[in-house]
């Protein structure tokens, strides 16, 4: 089939920043920083290959935001002080050297933290045992521990951690944009999730309250970095510890969540599903990326979920997506945009890349 791929290679503007094509590397946890959270030379080489391979945007793995409860994994990179921020500078320089937009994803693990060198306990919206078990390829073992319910001052500190880390990411590390991680079961998503959030205060109950922490974080980050820096939010239904979760209010929740992000001024919204084109809720209904575009029409929509196939990628642009974020396909094909442009075959993803531990392997960097 002769597919018209011109739209995939057309530029896109996000809050005054031009992206050269519609392909982005998705954020993927690779636990390859130093023990004290500094980005490494290996990470510099890892990220630069995607930019060399033609990706218009690179979104980093989740970067922890404070020296309290945010860290989630052993050897996770941070952005909590000048030292950690400065260590990102060569990584960012390598990405931007190829005309690629560099986005820092900021993350607070909350109740599903598997390792934190600053604390020996976890926090979340409520003292609810997280589902599932820790991920062994990130050095996890056994069940998640029971979190303590966050107090008001701890919530304020978490919001401030996002904002100050965003400032360092832009001003010290040199990133172009910031993505707030509100997906996949981490802290902001825990507040959004009805079974994890049993609060009866302003942060719990109705969806409008449960989305409040995401909105307040977005507002604080915006105030810290200014109006000209692209700021977005990543959202999902599924979680790393609950793959099949769906928003309890279905499309009504989507309207509230996406609509409130639009009202709060999110420059982009990044939605992720296992297969991005599948109905978000009822059979035959709209996908999550279509709902995001419907209820936040002025935001740039990033979509993630098995979109490395050229037919799926092209179709997604007609389904509400503006930019496609590629995970497994990018790991197997760091030059995926060039391959698709030249109509060359893609390498199949080999799960061994992420095993037995999901750190960056020298074999990846040699390809």
Automatic annotation (TrEMBL):
- Sorted UniProt keywords: Flavoprotein, Oxidoreductase
Q: Which residues form the NADH:flavin oxidoreductase/NADH oxidase N-terminal domain?
A: 8-343
Question: A Gene Ontology MF term for this entry?
Answer: FMN binding
N-terminal signal peptide = none
Q: Name one Pfam family in it.
A: Oxidored_FMN
Q: Which organism is it from?
A: Methylocella silvestris
InterPro entries noted in UniProt:
Aldolase_TIM (IPR013785), NADH_flavin_oxidoreductase (IPR051799), OxRdtase_FMN_N (IPR001155)
Q: What is this protein called?
A: NADH:flavin oxidoreductase
Q: Which Gene3D superfamilies match?
A: Aldolase class I (3.20.20.70)
């Amino acid at each position: 089939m002769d597919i018209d791929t011109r739209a995939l290679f057309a530029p896109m503007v996000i809050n005054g920043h031009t992206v050269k094509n519609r392909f982005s590397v998705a954020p993927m946890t690779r636990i390859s920083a130093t023990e004290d959270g500094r980005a490494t030379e290996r990470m510099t080489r890892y990220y630069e290959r995607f930019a060399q391979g033609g990706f218009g945007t690179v979104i980093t793995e989740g970067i922890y935001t404070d020296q309290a409860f945010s860290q989630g994994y052993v050897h996770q990179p941070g952005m909590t002080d000048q030292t950690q921020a400065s260590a990102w500078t060569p990584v960012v320089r390598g990405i931007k050297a190829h005309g690629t937009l560099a986005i820092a994803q900021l993350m607070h693990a909350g109740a599903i933290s598997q390792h934190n060198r600053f604390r020996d306990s976890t926090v979340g919206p409520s003292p609810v045992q997280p589902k599932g078990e820790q991920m062994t390829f990130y050095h996890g073992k056994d069940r998640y521990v029971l979190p303590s319910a966050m107090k008001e001052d701890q919530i304020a500190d978490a919001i401030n951690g996002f904002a100050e880390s965003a400032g360092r990411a832009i001003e010290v590390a040199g990133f172009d944009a910031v993505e707030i991680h509100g997906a996949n079961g981490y802290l902001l998503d825990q507040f959004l999730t009805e079974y994890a959030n049993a609060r009866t205060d302003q942060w719990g109950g109705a969806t409008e309250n449960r989305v409040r922490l995401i909105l307040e974080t977005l507002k604080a980050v915006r105030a810290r970095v200014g109006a000209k820096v692209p700021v977005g939010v990543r959202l999902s239904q599924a979680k790393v510890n609950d793959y099949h979760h769906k928003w309890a209010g279905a499309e009504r929740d989507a309207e509230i969540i996406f609509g409130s992000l639009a009202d709060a001024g999110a420059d982009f919204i990044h939605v992720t599903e296992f297969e991005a084109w599948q109905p978000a809720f009822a059979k035959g209904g709209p996908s999550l990326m279509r709902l995001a575009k419907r209820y936040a029409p002025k935001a740039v929509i990033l979509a993630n979920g098995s979109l490395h196939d050229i037919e799926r990628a092209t179709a997604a642009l007609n389904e509400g997506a503006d930019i496609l974020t590629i995970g497994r396909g990018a790991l197997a094909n760091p030059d995926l945009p060039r391959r698709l442009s030249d109509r060359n075959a893609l390498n199949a993803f080999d799960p061994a890349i992420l095993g037995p531990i999901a750190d960056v392997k020298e074999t990846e960097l040699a390809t």
